[in-house]
Amino acid sequence: MTQPSQHWQPDVYQNNASFVAGYGAPLIDLLKPQAGESILDLGCGDGVLTRKIADSGCCVLGLDGSTALLEAAREKGIETVCGDGQKLDFDRQFDAVFSNAALHWMTDAAAVVKGVARALKKGGRFVAEMGGAGNIAAIQTALEQALAEYGLRPRACWYFPTAEAYRALLQQQGFAVRQIGLYERPTPLPTGVAGWLEAFGEPMLPEGVDKEMRGQIFAQAARLAEQKLPKENGQTVADYVRLRFEAQLSEAV
Question: Fewer CB within 10 Å, N- or C-terminus of the chain?
Fold first, then answer.
């Protein structure tokens, strides 16, 4: 089965989801990049955080599946490569792999972790944050309800694991897990649920949904979700749950 794709548009992403990089910035502190290190930013997007890592004096490569977002990253002076995080083919190349808000798009998580382990030098670090179990539950439920009104069902497009499940994947590939855990991160949406769906909702739609129907489904889903989610300073607050971890590859691998 073909995995649902997301057609990223840098302007849409910037308008509706610029908060992603802002919330991810503290993850760089956990990474602790050192000058001269070689680091892979897995799912680098438009390169905002990649640029911050590079400014530490590291040699950073940004990998993403979206050519449009990679172009935006290159405009920030980032070296990039277009690729699938589930099919990494690097061999003992990096001191660290970093990923923010991207791993949950890669549903073959076992393949991702295996590829990261192969890409890292012995003793290398894997530092990441992704959607975890329970993430955006209210928005997902609203979209399911909106689709049901058309006799449709959503496609599975995300992997939101528990800490226990992801810890097991890491350990199977020779990682020592330094820390891992879920935490709730209520997230104000600058353009509401409608803007969020415009940026992220497309992969949940089944095949055959045209532009007009998509607009109607997203509008109904936004109305339903807005009824459930709280408000803060006039903005809808989404029910984000994040999984953050730091792991180190064994020297013996």
Answer: N
Q: Given a cut of 80, is residue 3 above it in pLDDT?
A: no
| pTM given for the model | 0.90
Give per-residue pLDDT as tens, 145-174.
999 999 999 999 999 999 999 999 999 999
Q: Give the pairing of strands 235-238 and 187-188.
A: antiparallel
Specify burial of residue 70 (Cβ count, 10 A radius: 0-12, 13-18, 19+): buried
User: Rounded to an integer, what distance in angstroms lies between the CA atom of residue 134 and that of residue 131?
Assistant: 8
Nearest to 242 by CA among 201, 189, 183: 183
Name the token pair of 93.
Answer: 């190349």
